[in-house]
Amino acid sequence: MTSEPGSSDWHARAKALRFATGHFIDGEHVEALAKARFTVVNPATLEPLCEVAAGTSADVDRAVASGRRAFASGIWRRKAPRERLEILSRYAQLIERHAGRFGLLDTLCMGKPIGDMMAIDVPQAVQTFTYFAELCDKIEGAVTATATDALHYILREPLGVVGCIVPWNYPLLMAAWKVAPALAAGNSVVLKPAEQSPLSALLMAELFVEAGGPPGVFNVVNGLGEAVGAPLALHADVNKIAFTGSTEVGKRMLIYAGQSNLKRVSLECGGKSPQIFLADLGDMDRAVHYAINGIFGNMGEVCNAGSRLLIDKPIAEAFIARFIELGRNAYRPGDPLDPCTNLGPLVTASHRARVVSYIERGRKEGARVEFGGDRPDLPGSYLNPTLFSKVTNQMTIAREEIFGPVAAAIEVDGLEEALQVANDSPYGLAASVWTRDLRSAHLAVRDLEAGVIWVNCFDHGDMTQPFGGYKQSGQGRDKCLESLLSYTQTKSAWVHLG
């Protein structure tokens, strides 16, 4: 029996790891036209990891032209759906075969624990490509009922070139959520990964060609948002932008679409997800465990992190006490290449400083730190998990997305007030409610203003689950059949038979 790799094994693999650092355009790794590069820093050590090609609008033009040529040729979009299915299935298998490389790339770039990469991110990316591969031959048109002298049918066709802009918190998985349905529908793709975590995207594109994907169909351009993301969103030959990131930048995507060619835009933006714990929740320990994992998992760097704990007053004291007891040491900062570590560093030192500023703001506004709020004695951009009590929904830490391991406990008086507080937010990505009462559960599902609602759980789901938000958490959905169809457009054909 082969034992699972330990910390020393992963460090040895990391030391021996070689990776591409250019762009990937027209089936090849290439340098930036301006020859410029930027530095990627390992957040666990704050030491430079590598230098990567820094793209400009000229590189975007080159990648979009490559995608447009491939689309116009029909080499991908006009393949029989079963052929696309077979290629994407082989592609999913290649991602799985290279799981260790993908795990190392994202761990080294953004600090995600290697255990999480191997148990969550890579398997779910494989599942994403497998799911959308299986949908390639499920895209259907329609024949409508019309007069006897006409035949009317509706076709679904790919859009063209899709620009995918993805964040650093789930570099591989968020790219998969955008790229897989775009490719399955027959589009060409230009992927712009976050500058903090660009390396796994390059391996993704390389393996697509190895699986039999035609060169030019899947391109990657690295660089800063203003240098690559904005030109991609403004490009007149891009037919859709699929974006995951901050609400502020998401709003710019809509502006760029209007300033250019009215391209389609799908947005998955920020969140401030409430977890509602009613007095009749039943198993308190189970609920507390979900609450802890819902905010401290992935270092709290999660769009739908359950950062607001709305706790019914009759159980508030006991719930918070149990959260302190179980949560204080549940997530311990450590070496992300150690499989036992469940809390890595925050993505950059500047992001840690931003999260710390929120903690200081919480203290000044009168919230009480129950634990955490400080930095461990480690060299990287680490922060200890933090719980605030005595929070009101008007405080900054209850209203703004912190994107770090900071939980805010807010006491509420029953379901009605819990729903009012939950919805008193510009965001509406996700929410949960814990109760044994069926009526309360259904009322919460009906009245919560969020795109994803969990009842007596948090962050559960599969590929059939639409993922996306209400309000300033964006519009459009990832995963699911609806996502695939959003990368297509309909064409109506009316045939006169008279």
Uncertain residue ranges: none
**Ends apart, CA distance between termini:** 73 Å
Strand order of the largest sheet: 14-15-16-13-12-18-19
| SS-derived structural category | alpha/beta
Specify the number of helices. 16
Q: What's the name of the CATH homologous superfamily of the largest domain? A: Aldehyde Dehydrogenase, Chain A, domain 1
**How many discrete domains?**
2
What overall geometry do the principal axes of the alpha carbons give? globular
What does this structure look like?
- This protein is an alpha/beta fold.
- The chain is 40% helix and 20% strand.
- It contains 16 helices and 22 strands.
- The protein has helices at 7-16, 57-73, 81-97, 99-110, 114-134, 171-184, 199-210, 225-234, 247-259, 284-296, 313-327, 349-364, 396-399, 414-423, 438-447, 480-485; strands at 23-25, 28-30, 37-42, 47-53, 142-143, 150-158, 161-165, 188-192, 218-220, 240-244, 264-268, 274-277, 308-312, 368-371, 386-389, 406-412, 427-428, 430-434, 452-455, 470-471, 474-475, 488-496.
- The strands form 6 sheets. It has a 7-stranded mixed beta sheet, sandwiched between helices. A 6-stranded mixed beta sheet has the order 9-8-7-10-11-21, sandwiched between helices. A 3-stranded antiparallel beta sheet has the order 5-6-22, with no helix packed on it.
- Strand 10 (240-244), helix 9 and strand 11 form a beta-alpha-beta unit.
- Helix 4 (99-110) packs across helix 5 and helix 5 packs parallel to helix 6.
- The chain is globular, with a radius of gyration of 23 Å.
- The model has no long low-confidence stretch (mean pLDDT 97).
